[in-house]
TrEMBL record:
N-terminal signal peptide: none
Gene transcribed to yield this protein: dcd
Residue numbers annotated as active site: E123
CDD domains: trimeric_dUTPase (cd07557)
Chain positions of site Important for bifunctional activity: G110, W111
HAMAP family with a match to the protein in the record: dCTP_deaminase
Pathway: Pyrimidine metabolism; dUMP biosynthesis; dUMP from dCTP: step 1/1
PANTHER family: DCTP DEAMINASE
Repeat is among the record's keywords: no
Family the entry assigns: Belongs to the dCTP deaminase family.
Protein name in UniProt: dCTP deaminase, dUMP-forming
Length: 178
């Protein structure tokens, strides 16, 4: 079941759902607007020119209120908001259609697990032929919350728990299964 604005406001009031900072106009009928933070990370070039899943990837991270995303460029960014989801709530990250129509693709693997706490890292890609200026504090997407039928038996406590800033891939920490 997707949560309504009324339920979201009540959960925020009861502090069973935490979103900080938040302004009342971010609450939409069936979602919460998310805003762009001020941290951006890009993958640093490797000497081999190859990214592997077994080794840590290095990133160059900057803090700025404005970031110029060049055509064909990929950058990690973060939400301005810090989230704490209870163990019975999940969320979907959706980009804004207005930005997609400019060629700005916004993703984060699309899913926020129950029990997650932290800022959400967004993957941004400029599919346009022109640069796109990104501005901290600007609405870039929305979070749609869904109530689960029961609290998760194993809520999220993974490698991105508590993240702040544009957090790079930690896939190298995964244990391989054979």
């Amino acid at each position: 079941m997707i949560l309504s604005d009324k339920t979201i406001l009540e959960m925020l009031r009861q502090k069973t759902l935490r979103i900080e900072p938040i302004e009342k106009d971010q609450i939409q009928p069936a979602s919460v607007d998310i805003r762009l933070g001020d941290t951006f990370s890009i993958v640093e070039d490797s000497s081999s020119g190859i990214i592997t899943l077994q080794h840590e990837i290095t990133y160059k991270t900057i803090r700025t209120n404005r970031y110029l995303l060049l055509p064909g460029q990929f950058v990690l960014a973060t939400t301005l908001e810090y989230f704490a989801l209870p163990d019975n709530l999940t969320a979907f990250v959706e980009g804004r259609s207005s930005l997609g129509r400019m060629g700005l693709f916004i993703q984060n693997a699309g899913w926020v697990d129950p029990g997650f706490e932290g800022e959400i890292t967004l993957e941004l890609f400029n599919a346009n032929r022109c640069a796109i200026e990104l501005q901290s504090g600007r609405r870039v997407g929305q979070l749609v919350f869904a109530q689960m039928d029961a609290p998760a038996k194993n809520p999220y406590r993974g490698k991105y728990q508590g993240q702040k800033g544009a957090t790079g891939s930690r896939v190298f920490m995964d244990r391989e299964t054979e």
